[in-house]
Amino acid sequence: ILEMHVLTDPIADVRLSELKRAHVLDFRDRLIQAKGFARVVQKTMSVVKIILKEAFFREEIERDPTTGVGSTKYESGEVGTFTADELRMLFPKKVPDPWGEINAYAVFMTAAVTGMRRGEILALQWQHVNFTRRCLMVKQAWKDRDELGKPKWNKVRVAPLPTSLISALMHVR
After folding, report:
1. Contact yes or no for 116/90 (Cβ under 8 A)
2. How far apart are CA 154 and CA 139, in angstroms?
3. Residue 138 carries which DSSP code?
4. What tens digit of pLDDT does each residue of 65-85 get?
5. H or E stretch including 37?
6. Longest dimension (CA), the chain
7. pTM of the predicted structure, to 2 decimals
8. CA–CA distance, 117 with 138 (Å, rounded to integer)
9. Model confidence at 162, in pLDDT bands (50, 70, 90)?
């Protein structure tokens, strides 16, 4: 977080002893504009606040410039699900329209009809797909660029395969 969001910003050039609340607020505004994702902004601001509170506690700075800087306000959208009509529009019988190629069609259909997360789909292997029983096992997920691990909540789970997804996966295979 420091390398990606803080040290690349002009706030990194301000001497710690000269840092004011205005610098922190301007930094937060730049983050919101540049990143746009509330979660990234919240995590980054939390890191900055922890560092500055620690510096104040250790008496390395005379005051904490994050005092009074609140959390970023954002409206969380309601998580929805696709309706049957929306799924038919996204995944018409004429494969691979509108996706352009069968691999993209199959990947997005897998996400839409199984609820699998991105890291779980990227870690999916053919041995986890059982066409006969019409299901797949979600056994692992990419946790980082170099690390495979268990899926979220450390729970292996089974996802049913509808006929349309079986057909798409058979084309890919």
Report:
1. no
2. 9
3. E
4. 998 888 766 566 666 778 888
5. none
6. 68
7. 0.55
8. 10
9. very high
